[in-house]
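Predicting holo structure, pyridoxal-5'-phosphate bound.
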Amino acid sequence: MDDKTKLITAGRPHWRPAHPVNTPVERTSTILFPTYDDFIEGKRKITYGRLGTSSHRALEEAITALEGGLETRLAPSGLQACVAAILAFVEAGDTVLMSDGVYDPTRKFAEKFLKKFNVETIFFDPTIGADIDALITPKTKVVFAESPSSLTFEVHDLPAIAAVAHANGAKVIVDNTWSAGVYFKPLSHGADVSIQACTKYLSGHSDCLLGSITSCDETSAKKIFYSLLQLGSNVSADDAFLTLRGMRTLMARLPMHQETGLKLAKWLTKRPEVQRVLHPAIKQTPGHQFWKRDFTGSTGLFGVLLHPVETPGLKAFFNALRLFSMGFSWGGFESLCIEVDPEANRSAKPWQEEGPLLRIHAGLEAANDLITDLDTAFKAMEVARNDQIA
Ligand SMILES: Cc1ncc(COP(=O)(O)O)c(C=O)c1O
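Done. Tokens:
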């Protein structure tokens, strides 16, 4: 089935003779079993609120279908999905290989939290490919990548990385949030586990936080289940409902994010204020050839490296924006633009570019209006620059 069909049909209720079109919110802590037989049978299915209700099962089913996995478990945030997935596979004395380009809090979890439990993390250049062989040891239990990288958008050669990891007995976990599970299928490209911050495109309306962990084999699925259980994770049924509702229109929204993102990126490459646009679909972006080979599209999040500009110019740029807002998330209906700093979060391949780096999220507004907004902001930047010179 096409993703379009999966997103409409998966996780729907099947009761007879009539039922709501979408699985409704089932909020509860306590599940009651009318008979002893039901109690014994129920213990294998839905037992207690923290372990999920039909609202959670429905969303899990839909994400499993989208990612092409065996089983999905939900986490209360994208970050906790990353954390729980890593914890599922490591113990004291093990090593994690982590891409230098991961979401900063995932990196901090490895650097600060895993370290306390004697799990070492070695960071690798996102463009490493099969050369990851030089870093892998019998202690390596997890290779964690996010493709494309947060902030810098390098696309990883996942099949090459996974081949080396598997030859050495390590699991491969991929943060697949950028592609929304639509434009990239990590589980078909060598990953054992695919994670999404459903907070972004899946829920799509900037009104809830949620994470998903999809695995493709029973052993991994079991370990992930116990990891979440032992962390005491609980996902709100309301957030599970909102995410599944968002997924129903994902295939209507995502191509718009893609189209507008590409229009903005192309327009920005021609601006004199811009050094480089960091977008997987743009040739100059490291790993563009792997995006072409392994991905089927692009979403609305990308980076823009400006030529060096002094603070008053940058301030004038941001303060002149009317349609783009400054906000730390992305994947919702609204356009966002913030300044980011990868310098502090890179060790394998230091970020040494001069000039401010912007992260843009192309929302669902008309692309031409967004271009006018950016144009106005660049003009304000120029005025501030000239004022400084005068
Ligand atoms: C790539 C990526 N992964 C994970 C997360 C964490 O998601 P959440 O905010 O739901 O914890 C984010 C959040 O921005 C992200 O950008």
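The chain has a mean pLDDT of 97.
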